[in-house]
Amino acid sequence: MADKKRIGIIGARGFVGGELLKLIAVHPDLELAYASSRQQAGAKIDGFDGAVFESLSPEEAAARAADLVFLALPNGVAAPWVEVITKAAPQTRFIDMSADYRFDDDWAYGLPELNREAVCGATRIANPGCYATAAQIAIAPMVSRLSAPPAVFGVSGYSGAGTTPSPKNDPKLLENNLMPYGLSGHMHEREIGYQLGTPVHFMPHVAAFFRGLSVTVNLCFDTPVTADELRALYAQAYAGEAFVTVSDEAPQVRDIANTFGAQVGGFALGEGGRRAVIVCVLDNLLKGAASQAIQNLNLSFGFAENEGLKG
User: 74 vs 11, 84, 184, 188, 299, CA distance in Å?
Assistant: First the structure.
């Protein structure tokens, strides 16, 4: 136990916090230092004998000597935690699950398949958004050949709306329905464009299934590509990646629920090879959040990237 890294979670009540707890419980190199949640304070934590949720202040968390803290908080509230914990325990590492540091170049952007070198050994990591992960995986191999902003049509399960009640996670409102929202200027639109260095048009929707998401991406090129060339470029880009699978057929959400990876495929061509449509799917709570955070933790500490993610 002495050699294990002690992990804290701030904001452990939500869906992502719950997934992080499950993954920490089975990781051979980690132990739980604490899980902070005001709403669940005093409740037992499944998978950890005798452990209970606590309601900790930043000062109390800083005194608990975690090697790494996951910040699983709403957007806009991470900074006080980072400031207080860093001042008291400067050796503490952070992985922020919100959008607060995704545009901050002092934080490594944790999409390993596209940014692994920056994540290795990093002590402050901004975990990408779920939609942003899928869209970037679908666009990145062709980004240098784009002649127009990619158009990204996304559909997510309602777990992506979190646990706070809203129309976007109300099963009754979603029944037999597809709900559009944030159709222009969505934070993920800016995140994708910032990381890829190209404008992107993103149109998100939420549906009645619980977990998983799909993005259908329209790409335009000045120079045509063939179907074989397109498939080969994606196969080459993700060769050897444990958590990205390339397939000829367009993948479906049901194929990736409760898995740690993304699937990209479809590769439909139009306009004489100057247009391609590509589909990427992933589990929004895992590769879109918690298991990607464990990938990033592993790279930060120098563990095997798939440690704790082999099931």
Answer: 8, 18, 21, 15, 25
